[in-house]
Description:
single chain; alpha/beta; Metallo-beta-lactamase, Chain A; 27% helix
Amino acid sequence: MTTVYDGALPILAVDMHGESPERITELLADxxxxxxGDLLTAVNTFLFQTGGRTVLVDAGAGTSVGPGTxxxxxNLRAAGVRPEQVDDILITHLHPDHAFGLVTADGEAAFPSAxxxxxxxxxxxxxxxxxxxNAEGVQAQIHRWAVQALTPYRAGGRFSTFAYGEQPVxxxxxxxxxxxxxxxxxxxxxxxxxxxxxWGDTMHSxxxxxxxxxxxxxxxxxxxxxxxxxxxxxxxxxxxGWVVGGAHLPxxxxxxxxxxxxxxxxxxAPYRPLEPA
Length: 277
């Protein structure tokens, strides 16, 4: 498994809900993070081989959210993989920092040979004209970005949707993590005697949300649903011992969660730079 770094995004403590500001400040301080100003969070994507195919999970932000992100293609090439060599792209959800890297600045497919796979529920929401017409502010912009990101793939017949529990590609099962968006998905990758769960926005700040998993984010479409998904998947990880890869966990975003004395702690896996063949 190779993490391909797209960059970093700011998040704000004021966008966290479900605990008092004082408790949020306390949790951040325990992680040596300031309560005021931007809290940077990584934007990770994940690259691996399965069934003879090259698979990418999420596509980064492209040109959507500023110069701190959009570095996926250059880092992919640094890993020895050309964009045209990617066969399948599994999108966790259609927020721009996960999907707008599907297209170049001029709207062309950044991955000219790839098929994009997405939860049917997320597609039904973000590609729905009526929902887009009723959306306001940032939600309306997300609808527009989603349509733009998928346009060349839909036009080329390289867009596919799935239901939870199905395998969009061989050896990878779609996991129900809805709440953050209506079709937010995780991907459970099986191999070498272990299972690795790759998620998108199940956590934005592990410093806060591992110790207080009931804390939701302003951007969550359904805050109670996002909380429930996080609590549910943490219990699955505790009982099944899954390795975890998270889009917004500290780069490279792969490791384990240790559960002890009623609390959860992030334990990053050792890593090394990939040496291209």
